[in-house]
Amino acid sequence: MLHEKKKSFPEYFLWGASTSAYQVEGASLLDGKGPSCQDVKKVPDGTSDLTVCADQYHRYKEDIALMAEMGFKTYRFSVSWSRILPEGTGAVNPKGIQYYNDLINECLKYGIEPLVTMFHFDMPAALDRRGSWSNRESVDWFADYAKVLFKNYGDRVKYWLTINEQNMLTLCGPVIGTLTIPEGTTNILKETYQQNHHMLVAQAKAMALCHAMLPKAKIGPAPNISLIYPASCNPKDVLAAQNYNALRNWLYLDMAVYGRYNDLVWAYLEEHDAIPEFIEGDDIVLKSGHPDFIGFNYYNTTTCTWSDSMEAAGSTADQQSAFDIPGFFKGFKNPHLPVTEFGWEIDPEGFRATIREIYSRYHLPMIITENGLGAYDKLTDDGKVHDSYRIEYLRRHIEQMQLAIADGCDMMGYCPWSAIDLISTHEGMVKRYGFIYVDREEFDLKTMDRYRKDSFYWYQKVIATNGQDLSD
Ligand code: BGP
């Protein structure tokens, strides 16, 4: 659709940016925090561990002041479960509670609305030892943790996100360091989807709890949605794209919004003897969630072809790389799309298409909880970072988001990844995303001083004009 007139972003539009606790905070075992799966994993060769990160734990005041200077209306951060509950369940850590109280209050001091992710890739290590999401009790562990959050922060936090990228936890857990499969498991697919089922039930419980405990709050999921294109107009490729979309995207949103399993995914799991076990009442809990909005992370689209072969190929795909499922779909490199320095395809028009598709399926307001460009930024001798490539990436995505609004989609906010440089899921500190540069290298912690990148000043102007001025 060509629009003659641009539509403005709504007045209340939540401009901001995102981070996650285990990637930004550091202080990984300080002040009573228990280790998470991220603290005990073997980090990929050549990448930093997660003990210091951007040291936001000690520098949150400076960081929030910089976000306020950019004009943020919201800051999306996550709470570290094991900072609040070092063993994952049971005793609460008062210093952990205090840290997020301070962080939330600091945001509110500047009129920045906290957008709080309850769980972002960091299962308490103590719960990993008890079987992680394979253990049916994980549903109650998460619900109890949710209660602690709602009780302590619900008086000030209006916007909540449940589980960050549950689809990536399920589809590429080993790459992001999160999948624990109990020893002796013979049907790994079944076990993985049993874990996924427990997360789905836990999420629904948390949403219902939020509505019961905090009637004015709003809560939603935060999957990573990447619209899947068929590689050609061959009808078989279209069928493959439907399969891939169902497995990667719609399973998660169909469940969050309608409380039912996607049919194509169910058929695929049946075929592989991998149907998750329900216990009595799960179907009712799953239908009780009702998100108020959809949060989703978008980095790129994915393309695929039909797959005739039933032979399994080992996959090491990360969150944004296409992969194959024999007999279901086969990943394909889209020849129309450029890639980032780290090999992720760049597709701003696909952003518009993804927003439109989600809106037509679910008709809920949407907030972008991640979108951004990882690059090897360089700090110049005079303390500048000339990241025009990031400005270009963000500008083109914001333009497409604005067109999606003109198409009739209901957008409530935009939080690119990331507010500040932090550690990547598996590619270390050198893969930077922030508006704020952190002066450290992979292993040399240097000064940890903060510097405003060129994108910082650009985003400041974007926010000040409510998205009307996207020029340099
Ligand atoms: C998302 C995760 C984030 C973040 C981002 C960038 O999948 O939710 O935690 O890290 O991707 O990915 P990466 O760090 O792998 O570059």
Mind summarizing the main beta sheet?
8 strands, parallel
Could you report the average pLDDT, rounded to the nearest whole number?
Answer: 96
Strand content: 5-15%
Unreliable spans are: none
* Strand-pairing-aware structural class: alpha/beta
How many strand segments?
A: 13
CATH class (first level) name? Alpha Beta
Q: In the CATH hierarchy, what is the architecture at level 2?
A: Alpha-Beta Barrel
Report Rg: 21 Å
Q: Which molecules are bound besides the chains?
A: 6-O-phosphono-beta-D-galactopyranose
Instruction: Encode the helix/strand succession as letters.
Output: EHHHEHHEHHEHHEEHHHEEEHEHEEEH
The percent of residues in helical segments reads 25-40%
- Please count the helical segments: 15
CATH superfamily: Glycosidases
Summarize the model shown.
The protein is of the alpha/beta class and 472 residues long. The chain is built from 15 helices and 13 strands.
Please give a structural write-up.
With 472 residues, this protein is an alpha/beta fold. It has one domain: Alpha-Beta Barrel (TIM Barrel). The strands form 3 sheets. An 8-stranded parallel β-sheet has the order 5-4-3-2-1-11-10-7. The chain is globular, with a radius of gyration of 21 Å. It starts with 13 loop residues before the first strand and ends in an 8-residue tail after the last helix. It binds 6-O-phosphono-beta-D-galactopyranose. The site of 6-O-phosphono-beta-D-galactopyranose has 16 residues, from loops.
Key structural traits:
472 residues, 39% helix, three-stranded mixed β-sheet, 13 strands, eight-stranded parallel β-sheet, alpha/beta, TIM Barrel, 15 helices, binds 6-O-phosphono-beta-D-galactopyranose
